[in-house]
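S1.2 Input.
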Amino acid sequence: MSILARLTRVWLTRQLQPFTFKSEYDGKLGFADCKGLGLYVHIPFCRQLCSFCPYCRQLYDEKACDEYIDHLIREIRLAGSQLKEKNRVTSLYFGGGTPALAAERIGEIISVIGEYFDITEGTGLELHPDDVSEETLTVLRAAGVTKISIGIQSFGDKFLSILGRKGLDPVRVEAALEKVPFETVSMDFIFALPGQTFDDLKADIDTAFSIGADHVAIYPFIDFTFAGSGVSPMGKQEKRKLLDSITLYCLSKGYTRDSIWTFSNKPGAKYSSMTRDNYLGFGCSAVTLLRDQFRINTFSVKEYQERIRNSMLPTSLTLRFTERQRMIYYLFWSAYSTRVDPHKFEDFFGVPLEKVYGFELWLAKKLGFIVEEDGVYHMTLKGAFYYHHYESYYTLAYINKMWGIMRHTAFPEKIVL
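S1.3 Output.
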C-alpha cells in the first residue's frame, strides 16, 4: 500500500486499525431496514477478455452462462427469502462481463428480483458496442431495462488498437438507438491513454452526444498490475491538464456534471451503480455494502456455484466497519458525485458532519478543494483533480491488491489493507 493511502486512512479514521477483510460472513443479510438500498447483478461472461479490464470475467460459453444464471437466480432467492415483505429499493444495475450476452434471460432475472423487491429508479445494464443492435435492445427493453451503458472506450482506431479492441461504426450504433429508446443512454470512454489529446477526447464526446447518448463517462486508465495491459499510463500533470480541459469544455456546452468523470446533456440522465448508500450484490465477485459491513463474493464461478448448490451465501470476505471507517467510505463515494450534503450525512449517521470532520472541511476550503453553497459542499476543479489523483492511489493500494489475490484464491483467510 502506498504511504499516502495509509496515512490518509489513519488520519481520517483516527485509528491505526487497518481495513481487515476476513473469511467469515453472517448467514443472514441485515438489509431489510437499510436506507437507499440498491441492487447489483454480475454476469462475468465476455466474447473476448480485454487486457485493460480488471473485473471478474471469463470467456463466454452459452451452456456455462445458462448454468451460472440458474445459480444466480438461486442466490437472489436465498437473500430475498429473508424478507418478511417486499422491500423498496432505488435501482438495479447489471454489470460484468457483458450482461447483454445473456439478453434472453435478463427478463427472467428481473422477474425473480421483482418477487422480493420494488425497484423505484429504474434498471441499468452494460453493453459491449457489438451488442448494440435493434434485436438485442428490443429484448432488453421488453425485459424491463430502462437505461444502458455502452463501453465505447474510444471512437478512434488508434486508441482502440492500444486497448486491443476492433473499430466500431457509430452509424450502426446510432441507427439501433434511434429505433429502441431508453431513459438514459450512457457511453463510457477511457482517458489518459498514451498520446491522447484534448481534441481526441472532445471528438469522442461530440460523437457520443450526436449519435444518441445523453450521458458520458470518461474514466481514467488505471494500470492494474494483474491485468497485464502493457499500456503506459499518462503522467500526473499531463493528466490533470487533460481532465481540466475536458471538464471545462463540457461545462461550456451546458452539460451537467454529476460525478468526477460523468456529464449529461439531458435533465435526469444518470448512470451510476456505485453512488448508493447501501446495496446488495448478486453473482461472483459482486459486492454488498450495508450499514456495518462490506462483503465480497468469491471470484471463482465454480466455487460460487458450489456454495449456492449447498444453499450457502457465496461470500468470500467480510469487512466489519468501525464507525469512522464507514463514514470515510460514505464520504468517499458521496464526494465522487462532486458534492457532499451534510444533511444526508447526518441523516445516515445521526451526527453532524461538521462535528466529525470540521477541521478537514475547513482545510479543504483553504486549499481550494471545495466551496460551500446553500449548505452543500461542492468540489472545485482543483478538488476534483485531487480526488481523482487520490482515487488512483486508493485503487492501486486497495483494489489492486485485493482483486489480485481473489482472482487466484476463491476464499482467502484474510486480507489486510
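S1.4 Remarks. The longest strand covers residues 184-191.
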